[in-house]
Specification:
Helices cover 42% and strands 12% of the residues. A hairpin with a 2-residue loop joins β8 and β9. The longest helix has 46 residues. α3 packs across α9. The strands form three sheets. The chain has a five-stranded mixed beta sheet, with helices on both faces. It has a two-stranded antiparallel sheet with strand order 2-6. A two-stranded antiparallel sheet has the order 3-4. The chain has two domains: 50 residues; 253 residues, no CATH class. The chain has nine helices and nine strands. By secondary structure, the protein is an alpha+beta fold.
């Protein structure tokens, strides 16, 4: 009996120990759960996809280019356009394709001059990149007394670009006009303004027409609408050629298939330095894009501007089927 009592006591003690061990295990598990719960927000945020970061820079937006910066655009040498045109023609540019079969229309003559018409959006990344080529092309027929620091949509590249005019980047509307003068052509830009911290936005062409500041803008925008060619921005007309998209798409010194766009990390001065130094793919591509626009304008002015006599411009025009 004594041995039986001892065995019962031992079993009872072992049962209590197991109960205590179980309770301790439950308590430890609860502590772990509470710890994880308290850390959950930081753990969850580390593993879930992060929202797109908008607006990493507003540096200098809507400020005027300095005279030195303007001179890079206005004073670009014709030799740069010729070399870039040759590279475009011989296929050594990896990010440029010579367009062909652009829809042709009669020139829009106003005050005795043919017109370049541009419809864009400040939030448009391709507009942002392409304005560099546009500015270079326009400089061959006139000059800018003002250009402004701008960016494309924040969160969609924040591309450093030029604005033709002082733009409202925080609310909806359209900015018309520029500080451009030429004895050869007219330039009629229209830019849809919106809050660029909210991504890409644009409106249909009637929106631009309804807000036209004068009868001339109403005329040129009505013409653009009548072409039925609007597929998005940029939408441009150069002399006789309708362009339904960006001509230059050069987002840095990368290949067309690269997911890395160095242009997004560049300042305006760095972009201008590359255009001025003319020693890399970005600069060659932007000048080559300008060559296409120049070739489109030249027939409408009877090749009167000196740039029209460049051999590369003539050959580009011939390949594009443009009448001389």
């Amino acid at each position: 009996m004594k041995n039986g009592s001892s065995s019962s006591r031992i079993r009872a003690i072992e049962g209590r120990i197991r109960t205590l061990q179980y309770a301790l295990a439950v308590l430890a598990a609860a502590v772990v759960v509470l710890a994880i719960y308290s850390l959950y927000p930081s753990i969850a945020s580390a593993f879930k996809p992060q929202p797109l970061s908008f607006g990493h820079t507003l540096a200098g937006i809507d400020t005027q280019f300095s005279s030195q910066q303007l001179s890079v655009i206005n004073g670009a040498p014709n030799s740069y356009f010729e070399i870039a045109g040759e590279r475009l023609l011989n296929g050594t540019l990896t990010d440029e394709v010579l367009p062909q079969n652009s829809p042709q229309f009669s020139p829009i003559i106003i005050n005795g001059k043919p017109s370049v018409i541009y419809i864009g959006a400040i939030s448009c990344i391709f507009c942002g990149e392409n304005r560099w080529s546009m500015a270079l092309a326009l400089s061959r027929f006139g000059n800018f007394s003002r250009l402004y620091v701008g960016y494309s949509s924040f969160g969609d590249g924040d591309i450093p670009t030029v604005y033709w005019n002082y733009n409202n980047y925080s609310s909806d509307g359209v900015t018309y006009g520029s500080y451009y003068n030429s004895r050869y052509i007219n330039f009629y830009p229209s830019e849809y303004d919106s809050n660029i911290t909210q991504g890409f936005q644009v409106q249909p062409l009637p929106y631009f027409i309804q807000r036209a500041p004068n009868s001339t803008y109403a005329k040129v925008l009505t013409f653009m609408n009548s072409t039925n060619g609007f597929q998005g921005t940029p939408f441009t007309f150069w002399g006789t050629s309708l362009n339904r998209g960006a001509d230059a798409v050069v987002l840095g010194n990368t290949t067309p298939t690269s997911s890395s766009f160095p242009l997004t990390n560049m300042t305006h001065q760095q972009v201008l330095n590359q255009l001025q130094n003319f020693s890399d793919q970005f600069a060659w591509g932007e000048y080559a894009g300008a060559d296409v626009y120049i070739a489109e304008v030249c027939p409408s002015i009877n090749n009167a501007a000196p740039v029209c006599s460049l051999p590369a411009i003539k050959q580009i025009g011939a390949i594009m089927g443009l009448s001389s």
